Amino acid sequence: MESPGISRRRAMAAAGGIVAGAAVAQAVAPAAFGAAAAYDADAIVIGHGLAGLVATAELVAAGRKVLLLDQEPEASLGGQAYWSFGGLFLVNSDEQRLMGVKDNVDLAWQDWQGAAGFDRGVDDPLGQDYWAAKWARAYVEFAAGEKRSWLAGLGVQWFPLVGWAERGGGLATGHGNSVPRFHVTWGTGPAVMEPFEKKVRAGVAAGKVVFKFRHRVDEIVRTGGAITGVRGAILEPSSAARGTPSSRTAVGTFELRAPVVIVTSGGIGANQDLVRQNWPARLGPVPKKMITGVPAHVDGRMLGITQSAGGRIVNPDRMWHYTEGLKNYAPIWPNHGIRILPGPSSMWFTADGKRFSAPDMPGYDTLHTLGSITATGYDYSWFVATQEIVDKEFALSGSEQNPDLTEKNVWKLLSRIWQTPEPVQKFEKYGEDFVVANTLPELVAGMNRVAGNNLINLDDLKRQIEARDREIDNTYSKDAQVMGIRNALTYIGDSLSRTAGAHKILDSSKGPLVAARLNILTRKTLGGLQTNLSGQVLDAAGAPIPGLYAAGEVAGFGGGGVHGYRSLEGTFLGGCLFSGRAAGRAAAAATAS
C-alpha cells in the first residue's frame, strides 16, 4: 500500500531523480555499461516521449542495454503524451459493444482509406505512400486485434462512453468515422505513458537503461554505410518545469556509440517556421497568426539531422492542425493554445459572420474546415452557442484541462452532469476568446470588440440564426447540421455526455448566448521519415539504412505518413505505441548476440 500523500508516480519520479542528478557526470564517463566491446550500449534511443519509452521498454524486455537521450530535463519525460487527452482509436472494442456500436476491421479500413486518400505511389516501392499504406493496414488490424488486450494487460483502462470524432459528413467511402471509435483513457495521457515509464525505470534499476537528459543530438554517425552512434552537445542543467522552455546553452560535447539508433524525437508542431515552410497550397494561404498546441521542444530538428545521415523524408506537406483553438489564459509554453473538443450543436461562422456549410461543422472534417477558414482571408472563425450547449458539449483538449479524468476522480466526473466543467468555466471567465451575453445585440458587440473590428453585422447574423432555429420545429430537417444533431442523439454515448438536446439558439431559457473566437492551432506532423514495417529508416533508393530506426511522429507515426492526408483521431498516441513497439522489437532482434 502506498504511504499517504506519496503516489506511485511520485515514487517513480523520485527514483529517476537520482539518475537525473548524475546526468552530466554520465555524459563524460567511460562506456555506459562497462562493456568490453567498442560500443557504449546495444541501442541509443533519441527522444524520451511515448514512442521512445515504448521502444526502450521493448529493448529492455529483450535484454538489451539502452541509452535514452533527450535534450529536455527529466521533468519532461513522456513528451507530448503527458499533455494529451489520452484518446485511442479501437475497433470492435468491449466499450463499443457496451454502447451498442457495431464495428469491424472492414468498416474501419474503409474509413481509414477514405480519410487517408493515399495517392502517392501506393503500388510503387519508391512511392511516398507505399510504406504508409502498409503501415495503415497493419495499424487498423492492430486496433481491431491485440491493441486493447495488450494495453489492458499493462493496466490501461478506458472511460466507457466512446467518443465520435471526425464524423466526415460526406459519403460512406469518404473521410470520417462511420461509428464512434475515440476511447478516452481513464487517467488521460499520463495513464497511457505510465506503464512504459515504469518499465523503463525498472530497466534503469536493473542496469539496462541509462537516461541521458540534456543531451542534444546534432549528428547521427554513419561509418562504412552503417550507423555507429551519435554526437552532440550537453546542455546546461535545467530546472524548467514540464512543458516550459529549457535553456539551450551548451556546456560540453559528447559522442556515444551503438550499432542501433532509434529516432523518436517528435514532429514540427512548435516550430512555426517549419510549419509555414511546408504548408500546402491545398489548405489555402498560410495563416498570418496561429497558436501552438505543443511544447516548444517539438522543434522538428531531428528530421533534418536524420536526413543528413541518409534518411528519406516523405509527405512533408501533410500536417494536422486544429481549427477550434483558444488562447490559454494561463500558458505553460510559448503561444500556448488549447483546443475545444466540440459536440455537434454550435453554429460555426466565418470571421465576417457567414455560416459554414457541410462538411464544415463541429467535429466533422478538420482539414476541410481549415481550408475553408483560410480561404476567407482571415485566420480565425466563431462558434455561436447557448450556455446549455457549452455545458454539455464543450470539452477542452489536454490532461491538465480534464482533472476529473486525469485524476481518476469519479465525483468530479459526475459533477459534469449538473455544472459546466471547471476548466471550461475558467476559459469563459478569463479567456480572451469568449463572449457571454444575454441578448444577440450584446453578443455581436462583444464579438466585434474581441476581434478589434466591426465585421459581424447584427441583422445578418440574426437572419442566419433564425433560419436555423426554424428547422428545430420538426423532428426532421433539410439543414445538414440539424440532421447531424439528431443523428448524434440516437447514439447513447452522445446523448448522455456530448450532445445537448436539439433547441433554438435564440431560446432564452437555454441560458445566455456564448460566442468563442476560434484560432488555428498547430499540432501534428503527418509526414516524416519513411520506414518499413520493422521501423527501419529507408534511404532515397528505398533501402534500409543499417542500424537506423524511427518511430512515432518523426516517422509520420509509421511509414512516413500512416494517416495519409487526414486523421480519424485517437490515432496519434496509438501510432506512437504501435511504431515504437515495432521499432523496439526489430532493433532488439537485430542486436541479438
Automatic annotation (TrEMBL):
Gene3D superfamilies: FAD/NAD(P)-binding domain, Succinate dehydrogenase/fumarate reductase flavoprotein, catalytic domain. Residues 42-573 form the FAD-dependent oxidoreductase 2 FAD-binding domain. Signal peptide: none annotated. Keywords: Flavoprotein, Oxidoreductase. Pfam families: FAD_binding_2 (PF00890). Transmembrane segments: none annotated. GO terms for molecular function: steroid dehydrogenase activity, acting on the CH-CH group of donors. It comes from the Bacteria. Coiled coil: none annotated. This is FAD-binding dehydrogenase.
